[in-house]
What does this fold into?
Amino acid sequence: MRVLVEDLETAAGARLATSWQAPELAVIVPSYNERDNIPVLYDRVGAALEGIPFEFIVVDDNSPDGTAAVVKEMARRFSNVRCIHRIGRRGLSSACIEGISASAAPFFAVIDADLQHDEAILPRMYAKAIDGDDIVVGTRYAGAGSTGEGLSSAREAGSRLATRLSSLLTGTKLSDPMSGFFLMRREVFDEVAPTLSKDGFKILLDIIVSATRFRTRADRTLSIGELPYRFRARQAGESKMSPLIVVQFLGLLLSKLSRGLLPTSFLLFGMVGGSGVFVHLAVLWLTHETMGFNFTNAQLTATIVAMTTNFVLNNELTYADKKLRGGRFWIGLLSFYVVCSIGALANVSVATWIYSASPDLFLAGIAGAVMSVVFNYSVTRVFTWR
Ligand code: GDD
Ligand code: MN
It folds into this structure.
């Protein structure tokens, strides 16, 4: 027998319904080491959203500063607070995706925990969404918006460059696609959730590119609104932005450019492989020319060093979300050596086969290299970074 949700009018449910109001808006707060900021943020968001039933969902990646314990303490006192406490995982985009998916509210907003985003514009963002916008973006680069004291001049230049690059590559006309502050209808998210990349920081850009494509295929438009705000300086703690995040962002752009055909992790794996060629040549030169190794030993050393740097970079970058540590690091490294050696055999056999069919040196060489990247990527996903 199928039970319909409408049939669940039990006495307990009815009692609950009088004291509990279903949230209209979920405020999703990704957090890593933000213990001192979150209570302040909750206070300010509550004041801003007076009259709008909202829930406050913090997604914390087991921060060493004990953020999760603070949020759980809050959740014991305030019924609209929840903590999604993730263990053994890291990542801003994946944290947002998980928080959004955990809520059933028809609208949700994503806001940083560090008080850099101006929560005072939340009610206007919400009103715009009620009025029909699918996504409302808090922007630093339009109207009265500004980066204020929120970004150093170097980071501001980087942010503007990334904005230009992403409009170029994805065709979005947004003034601030790098924003981490936005509010949207849940159904728009649900349409594209399976295609979103879990890596990196740029969830908004990812959602917009995917949703625009989805809507275009369905012959519907996506309405995006913008509201300017002044980006503030971080309150407590420090930023988690790093060169790693920047490379992950490039991977995301390329992945979107291939219409998701090539996953971000594959592109990052390929970029790491490319860096391995340089490491290899450098070590080959160093050991052969300056340390007097014979060619075979120099080549062997270069191969091992390049495989090792590739492993470390993939572990930090491509698979930052399932980074291997301690004993698992060494077992992973061994399995990586084994897979890459088999990949090298695959490389040589494919190249030889193609070369025998049509003796084009570059074609055969590139085909062999592509073969080993594809092979190493697919197999290490199964054996090394499960
Ligand atoms: N759960 C989780 N896991 N949260 C994270 C992680 C993580 O691995 N890394 C960062 N966060 C949280 C932080 O705690 C913070 O609440 C928010 O994500 C933004 O991180 P910051 O470290 O403060 O980044 P930022 O200020 O340098 O970057 C911000 O500005 C960029 C534009 O310049 C973010 O809003 C970006 O999304 C935005 O693009
Ligand atoms: Mn910040």
